[in-house]
Design a protein that fits this description.
It contains five helices and six strands; from the N terminus they run ααααββαββββ. It is α+β, with helices and mostly antiparallel strands and 125 residues long. Strands 1, 2, 3, 4, 5 and 6 form a six-stranded antiparallel sheet that branches. The radius of gyration is 15 Å and the shape is globular.
């Protein structure tokens, strides 16, 4: 298996972990414990176990692989892809990359808001 396939498979597994942890909060009526289940147990663990190089590889995947991870196109006039919210929450605190909002303004990924469109933040890579 090549490096990009390994990256995609790892990212898909992380996405499954996030989805399963979120579902557990609802399935077991433990919304009062959601902060632990989702933030502490899930996202903090993922942030600590991944590094900048891994996420650079995720952002470099081809469009078909990104679509499988939940990236979406805003419309036909934009070349970039919107970034899925689950992925933003998994990025290590020291991770930074330039993104472009749906109006064309550039900024750091650290400075974006969490305005969600079709499951993604309103920022593109």
């Amino acid at each position: 298996m090549n490096e990009m396939n390994d990256t995609l498979m790892t990212a898909l597994n992380i996405m499954k972990i996030v989805a399963n942890n979120a579902a557990c909060c609802f399935a077991y009526n433990q919304l009062n414990k959601a902060d632990f289940w989702i933030k502490k147990d899930c996202f903090e663990r993922i942030r600590n176990e991944t590094d900048k190089e891994f996420w650079d590889k995720v952002f470099a995947l081809d469009n078909d692989d990104k679509l499988a991870l939940g990236f979406r196109f805003w419309d036909e006039s934009h070349e970039g892809m919107l970034i899925p919210l689950w992925l933003i929450e998994c990025l290590p605190d020291d991770y930074d990359i330039e993104v472009v909002d749906i109006n064309g303004q550039k900024s750091s990924i650290k400075d974006i808001d969490k305005d969600v469109r079709i499951g993604c933040v309103a920022y593109m890579i």
